[in-house]
Write a structure and sequence with these properties.
With 146 residues, the chain is α+β, with helices and mostly antiparallel strands. It has helices spanning 17-33, 40-47, 102-115, 127-130, 136-140; strands at 88-90, 93-98, 120-125. Strand 1 (88-90) and strand 2 form a beta hairpin. The termini are far apart.
């Protein structure tokens, strides 16, 4: 048997980009110090793993868009975060990003539609959010006080 340590995390996002980056870096360093890492070999282990009831895990990978649309938000911006995993599941829907890469956007739409068959998948242009390194989940977590 191969022992594999991986880490997943959920962290609160703020409007302070540097704080978010520092917090994410700290979480990654802490997980790595405890042995967490994911490589292609680890991905294969996960794909062949089972849960406590002996059921095979369903592992899905999502690549970033290779050809995101050029925009004023992404131009010369190293913080631009063009990634699909920061989506938001809400009653009856999944709100996901789209980046103007038709092939990549379509693959994510198809995968999310398959994974959430009872929800409508809606993709939105989030270039302005991604410009600060964030995603849909980051900006939907906080509710203003009434």
């Amino acid at each position: 048997m191969t022992l594999l340590t991986i880490a997943t995390t959920q962290m609160p996002c703020t409007w302070d980009l540097q704080h978010n980056l520092d917090q994410a870096e700290q979480l990654v360093r802490e997980a790595a110090a405890k042995g967490a890492k994911v490589t292609r070999a680890h991905l294969e282990i996960l794909k062949n793993a089972t849960d406590a009831d002996g059921r095979k895990l369903q592992v899905h990978t999502v690549s970033s868009p290779l050809n995101p649309r050029p925009s004023k938000f992404s131009k010369n911006n190293p913080d631009f975060a063009a990634g699909y995993i920061n989506y938001f599941v809400i009653n009856g829907a999944v709100i996901a990003p789209e980046f103007g890469d038709r092939a990549a956007d379509a693959r994510v739409f198809s995968l999310l539609s398959e994974l959430y068959p009872d929800r409508e998948v809606v993709q939105l242009n989030i270039d302005a959010i991604s410009a600060g390194g964030g995603g849909i989940h980051c900006v939907t977590r906080h509710q203003p006080m009434a």
